[in-house]
């Protein structure tokens, strides 16, 4: 801003109008030429030339500090475009030692962008951070806290921890807020070093400033996720805060698009979902405020719908309440019927959660779900498949798995393909209407899997292993039981498959074989281990 | 079991199987075989699941923020999870391919490598944030909007050029909204106040430096 004002003044005085940035003309030219570059290669050449020139100039003695600041900013720019400027790191570190806020701030920005918390140069910064945390200029303290959130790691936490804890009581709310977030970050990096200070988070929940209170919800969420029972006593406090927020008792500054502090509401709802889960008493405290929020939510804005969605998530996590579940189902309906793809997506997700509590909810939305399945939007399709996965029973497993396989054939993302493949296998495993169907399914679909995708590394093995695993289990269970009939039929078909396999692979001669079946098995099980185990089982079959 | 270059070698296992075959009872041979097969398939399954587990052990809200132009040029990147320089280029390339080709009426969310990326287009610029799969996507969409509204207020009708030439200021603002991948401040007023304070202190410092050097040069 100061450089903007400087340029503004210069412009007013009639001197060169180099733009509104305050950076030198060189930097402007650099950015312009990058913008006009016609190919990545040309862009790379320009940046590399710039890096070389900076490398020379930055190493010169007595570079004026403001010029050094610009060099560092240019290096940040170069690294942002994907190039290495590590020769400049040390200069950025030195800049953090500077007393002037302008330079110190740039130094901190640069080091947080350049370095990760395990870099060797961190040692040189820790002292500076320690010193700055004790500064009487709160802006310097803020800059140091922001840097600490990125750069302090498990080893260096003890060096700054005491000051950060002291800063939780700083008169300025911006500092307290950042101190809370820094402490949270330390807890994430090393829970043990901060465990004795957890009560501080509880205290900050009662902070006068809503920003600090809102920031405290982040660490509390993590703590509650790790250990729900220790925080059940806070249910009433959270409910009371949520009530106040919903009743618009927070300063207007926290309003966003006509909703009262929606981001804070969402955090609170997430926390209450955890605390009320499986706990009738705790949930009892939550029902009223949830009902209020359902009623008050602005469903015409994105943020209103975000809060509504979070309410639905909360309702489906806590101890069931019929009225709230109805409200949730109604909101879900509205989402699914909406024109907006985003809302349909949320609707599908919400439906998936409600199904767990009441499977019949899915019935009335079948058409909407099928529409989503056939939508050209890939994201929506995937989400709908996830829903189908939750809705599978033995009556519809074949249909659903067929659909999933069709979809799988059509997509290109290998990572996702293998995920669907393993899901198909899981579903088939769980809901197979009969053992015979399962073996048939395994054989014919493995054939499909293999022919489509030659590039399937570990994940591909995973699919094959699971199928073979299940085959073997079925055979084993067959062996374990005494009854004939279905089991012997099963065994014989499985046994035949093995024989055919062995025939093609090991040139043992057992008897008749069909080339096709052998080929199928060959394709299925290119995994050496599985071959070995099948040999083993076949030996068992032979010698039993 | 020996893991070599990501592939499991089965030599020790084979000897176990052979030992099992040679062992005395029929039952025993068979059960041993089943045990081993379960072990291995669990291990292979576990490796895939293990990868997912790793991802969740340090779950943050937002893993990174990327601003790219319609032509795929990078305007701003902020990484809250560890990504090496090479990985970053790959991520940007992949996401550009995924997001820039999406039509206007589709969802503002894409699934990518087990994560979700929420994006929104403002004129010629795409704002993208990568989150964990169980986060509230619509909320993140609004956090993006919150960021854009603050930028708009600061620059006065912000445009892509503002962000190109003042990317370091955009970083300062982003650092007031998000910290360590979490939403730090949801009040636009609070953010604006802090940034203004920082800017004015810097300005004062500069003026003071200017006036001191004037005094010195005059006294000489």
UniProtKB/TrEMBL annotation, chain A:
The record's keywords, sorted A to Z, are:
Golgi apparatus, Membrane, Protein transport, Transport
**Is Protein biosynthesis one of the keywords?**
no
**What cellular-component terms does GO give this entry?**
AP-4 adaptor complex; endomembrane system
Q: What's a Pfam family in this record?
A: Adaptin_N
The domain of life is Eukaryota
* Gene3D superfamilies linked: Leucine-rich Repeat Variant
What is the first-listed, main subcellular location in coarse terms? membrane
Domain Clathrin/coatomer adaptor adaptin-like N-terminal: residue ranges: 50-443
Tell me the InterPro entries matching this sequence.
Answer: Adaptor_Complx_Large_Subunit, AP4_complex_esu, ARM-like, ARM-type_fold, Clathrin/coatomer_adapt-like_N
One example of a Gene Ontology biological process annotation = vesicle-mediated transport
Q: Where in the cell is it found?
A: Endomembrane system
Oligomeric state and interaction partners are given as:
Adaptor protein complex 4 (AP-4) is a heterotetramer composed of two large adaptins, a medium adaptin and a small adaptin.
Its function, per the record, reads: Subunit of novel type of clathrin- or non-clathrin-associated protein coat involved in targeting proteins from the trans-Golgi network (TGN) to the endosomal-lysosomal system.
As for family, the record states: Belongs to the adaptor complexes large subunit family.
PANTHER family, alphabetized = ADAPTIN, ALPHA/GAMMA/EPSILON (PTHR22780)
Q: What is this protein called?
A: AP-4 complex subunit epsilon
Q: Which organism is it from?
A: Musa troglodytarum (fe'i banana)
TrEMBL record, chain B:
CDD domains attached to this UniProt entry? AP1_sigma
Q: Has UniProt tagged this entry with the keyword ATP-binding?
A: no
Topology in the lipid bilayer: Peripheral membrane protein
Q: Please tell me one Gene Ontology term that the record gives under cellular component.
A: AP-1 adaptor complex
Q: Which GO terms describe its biological process?
A: cytosolic transport; intracellular protein transport
Q: Where in the cell is it found?
A: Cytoplasmic vesicle, Clathrin-coated vesicle membrane; Golgi apparatus
In the record, the note on similarity to other proteins reads:
Belongs to the adaptor complexes small subunit family.
Quaternary form?
Adaptor protein complex 1 (AP-1) is a heterotetramer composed of two large adaptins (gamma-type subunit and beta-type subunit), a medium adaptin (mu-type subunit) and a small adaptin (sigma-type subunit).
This chain belongs to the protein called Adaptor AP-1 19 kDa protein
Q: Which organism is the protein's source?
A: Musa troglodytarum (fe'i banana)
Record lineage: Eukaryota, Viridiplantae, Streptophyta, Embryophyta, Tracheophyta
């Amino acid at each position: 801003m100061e450089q903007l004002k400087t340029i503004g003044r210069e412009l007013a005085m009639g001197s060169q109008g180099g733009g509104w940035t305050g950076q030198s003309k060189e930097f402007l030219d650099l950015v312009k030429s990058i913008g006009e570059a016609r190919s990545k290669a040309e862009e790379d050449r320009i940046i590399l030339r710039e890096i070389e020139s900076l490398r020379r100039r930055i190493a010169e003695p007595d570079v004026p500090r403001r010029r050094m600041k610009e060099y560092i900013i240019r290096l940040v720019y170069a690294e942002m475009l994907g190039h290495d400027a590590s020769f400049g790191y040390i200069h950025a570190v030195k800049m953090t030692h500077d007393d002037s806020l302008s330079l110190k701030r740039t130094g901190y920005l640069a080091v947080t962008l350049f370095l990760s918390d395990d870099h060797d140069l961190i040692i040189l910064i820790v002292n500076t951070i320690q010193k700055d945390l004790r500064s009487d200029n709160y802006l310097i303290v803020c800059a140091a806290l922001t840097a600490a959130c990125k750069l302090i790691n498990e080893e260096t936490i003890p060096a700054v921890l005491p000051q950060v804890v002291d800063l939780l009581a700083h008169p300025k709310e911006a500092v307290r807020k950042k101190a809370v977030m820094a402490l949270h970050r330390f807890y994430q990096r090393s829970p043990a070093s901060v465990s004795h200070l957890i009560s501080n988070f509880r205290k900050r929940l009662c902070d006068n400033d809503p920003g600090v209170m809102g920031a405290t919800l982040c660490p509390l969420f993590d703590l509650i996720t790790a250990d729900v029972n220790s925080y059940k006593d806070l249910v009433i406090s959270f409910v009371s805060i949520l009530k106040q927020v919903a009743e618009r008792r927070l300063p207007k500054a926290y309003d966003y698009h006509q909703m009262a502090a929606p981001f804070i509401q969402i955090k609170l709802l997430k926390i209450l979902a955890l605390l009320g889960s499986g706990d009738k008493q705790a949930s009892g405290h939550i029902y009223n405020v949830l009902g209020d929020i359902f009623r008050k939510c602005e469903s015409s804005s994105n943020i209103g719908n975000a809060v509504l969605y979070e309410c639905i998530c909360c309702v489906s996590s806590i101890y069931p309440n019929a009225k709230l579940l109805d409200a949730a189902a109604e909101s879900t309906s509205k989402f699914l019927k909406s024109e907006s793809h985003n809302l349909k997506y949320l609707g599908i997700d919400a439906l998936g959660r409600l199904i767990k509590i009441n499977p019949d909810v899915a019935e009335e939305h079948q058409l909407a779900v099928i529409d989503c399945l056939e939508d050209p939007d890939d994201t929506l399709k995937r989400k709908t498949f996830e829903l189908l996965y939750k809705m599978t029973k033995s009556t519809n497993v074949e249909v659903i798995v067929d659909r999933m396989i069709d979809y799988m054939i059509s997509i290109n993302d290998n990572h996702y393909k293998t995920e669907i493949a393993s899901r198909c296998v899981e579903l088939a495993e769980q809901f197979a209407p009969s053992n015979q169907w399962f073996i048939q399914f395994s054989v014919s679909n493995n054939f499909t899997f293999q022919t489509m995708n030659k590039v399937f590394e570990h994940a591909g093995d995973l699919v094959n292993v699971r199928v073979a695993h299940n085959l073997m289990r079925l055979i084993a269970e067959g062996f374990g039981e005494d009854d004939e009939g279905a089991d012997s039929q099963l065994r014989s078909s499985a046994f035949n498959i093995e024989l055919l396999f062995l025939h093609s692979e090991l040139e043992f001669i057992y008897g008749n074989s069909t080339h096709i079946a052998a080929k199928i098995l060959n394709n299925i099980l290119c995994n050496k281990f599985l071959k070995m185990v099948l040999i083993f089982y076949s030996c068992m079959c032979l010698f039993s | 079991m020996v893991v070599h270059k990501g592939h499991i070698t089965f030599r020790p296992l084979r000897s176990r199987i052979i030992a099992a075959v040679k062992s005395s009872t029929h039952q025993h041979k068979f059960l041993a075989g089943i045990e081993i097969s379960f072990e291995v398939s669990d291990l292979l399954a576990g490796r895939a699941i293990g990868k997912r587990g790793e991802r969740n052990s340090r779950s943050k809200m937002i893993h990174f923020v990327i601003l790219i132009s319609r032509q795929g040029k990078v305007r701003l990147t902020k990484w809250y999870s560890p990504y090496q320089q090479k990985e970053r280029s790959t991520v940007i390339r992949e996401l550009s391919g995924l997001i820039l080709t999406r039509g206007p009426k589709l969802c503002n969310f894409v699934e990518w490598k087990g994560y979700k990326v929420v994006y929104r287009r403002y004129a010629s610029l795409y704002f993208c944030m990568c989150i964990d799969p169980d986060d509230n996507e619509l909320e993140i969409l609004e956090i993006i909007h919150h960021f854009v509204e603050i930028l708009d207020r600061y620059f006065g009708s912000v445009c892509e050029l503002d962000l190109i030439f003042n990317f370091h200021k955009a970083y300062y603002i982003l650092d007031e909204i998000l910290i360590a991948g979490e939403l730090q401040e949801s009040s636009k007023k609070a953010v604006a106040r802090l940034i203004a304070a920082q800017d004015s202190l810097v300005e004062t410092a500069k003026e003071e430096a200017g006036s001191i050097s004037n005094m010195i040069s005059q006294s000489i």
